[in-house]
Amino acid sequence: MTQGAVPPSVTQLIETFSELPGIGPKTASRLAFYLLRGRSELASPTSAPPALALRLAEALRNLVENTRFCSQCFNVTEQDPCPICADPTRDHGLLCVVEEPLDLLALERTEQYRGVFHVLNGALSPMEGIFAEDLRIKELELRLAKGGIREVILATNPTSEGDYTAAYLLGRLKNSGVRVTRLGRGLPMGGDLEYADAVTLTRALESRQEL
Q1: How many whole angstroms separate alpha carbon 139 and alpha carbon 114?
Q2: Among residues 46, 179, 189, 208, which one has the fewest Cβ atoms lying within 10 Å of its Cβ?
Q3: DSSP tag of 64
Q4: What does the radius of gyration of the chain's CA atoms come to, in whole angstroms?
Q5: Can you tell me whether residue 92 is helix, strand or coil?
Q6: What are phi and psi of 206, to 5 degrees?
Q7: Which residues contact 33 (CB under 8 A, 6 or more apart)?
Q8: Which helix (DSSP H) or strand (DSSP E) does residue 137 occupy?
Q9: Helix or strand holding residue 116 (H, E)
Q10: How deeply is 32 buried, as exposed, middle or buried, from its count of CB atoms within 10 A (0-12, 13-18, 19+)?
C-alpha cells in the first residue's frame, strides 16, 4: 500500500491480522476494511464505529480477561478445573492425550468418549524448534504418578509430527505401569483430528491399538 494512503490505526489492524495463521496480507486487508464498512459515505467523522467491529473488540477483551488454561488438563477454560475435569460422571481412569484444544473438541463432538483429556499444546517438531520441554509432557507424567489412571490414549494427529510425538510419549510412559494405546487408523495420514467427521473419530476410538 502507498505510504500515507492508509491511516496508522488501520495499518496496525492489518499487520495484526497478518500475524494470525493462514491470514496473508491481502486477506488481512480485506478483513480490516470489512470491519469499516459500517460507516456510510455521508457519515460524520464522529459517527459510531460499525457494530461488528465493536462486538469483535468486546469478544477479544473477554477472551483475554476471562480465559485461562485448566491446571489439570491444560484445555482452554473460564473456570479451573475445567468442566470436563470437574465432571464426576466422566471416567477419570481413562486419559486421552491430544495436541491442541481443537482436537479435544473434535473428540467431544463424537459423544462417544467419556474419559478425560490432557492437552499437550503442540507436537514435537525439532525442525521448527518445538522440543519436549515446550509441551505439557512433564505434567502428563505427574498426572500418571498420582495414580488412578489405567489407560492413556495417544490421540496425536496422523502426521509425521504426530507419529513422532506418539513414539516419544510411548518411550516416556512405557515404565509407568499404565496401558498405552493409540487411535486406530480410521484417520487419514496427514490429516488433523479437528477436520475429521464424528463417525471416523468414533471408529478410531473403538479400534485404538495397544502400543
Answers
A1: 21
A2: 46
A3: H
A4: 22
A5: strand
A6: -70, -30
A7: 10
A8: helix 137-145
A9: strand 115-119
A10: buried
Q: Which residue ranges form the domains of the chain, and what is each CATH number?
A: 8-66 (1.10.8.420), 72-210 (3.40.1360.10)
**Distance from C-alpha of 21 to C-alpha of 140, rounded to nearest angstrom:** 27
Mapping DSSP to helix (H, G, I), strand (E, B) and coil, where does residue 30 land?
Answer: helix
pLDDT truncated to tens, each residue of the chain (211 aa)? 555 678 899 999 999 999 999 999 999 999 999 888 765 544 555 555 578 888 999 999 999 999 999 999 999 999 999 999 999 999 999 999 999 999 999 999 989 899 999 999 999 999 999 999 999 999 999 999 999 999 999 999 988 899 999 999 999 998 999 999 988 766 665 667 777 777 778 767 777 767 6
Beta-bridge partners for 125: 130
CA–CA separation, 112 vs 183, rounded Å? 13
d(CA 96, CA 204): 13
- DSSP state, residue 80: S
Q: How far apart, in whole angstroms, are the C-alpha atoms of residue 31 and residue 122?
A: 28
Strand-pair partners of 155: none
- Pairwise CA distance, residues 159 & 128, whole Å: 15
Ramachandran class of 46: left when φ > 0, alpha when ψ lies in -120 to 50, beta otherwise:
alpha
Residue (of 121, 198, 188, 114) closest to 158 by Cα position: 188
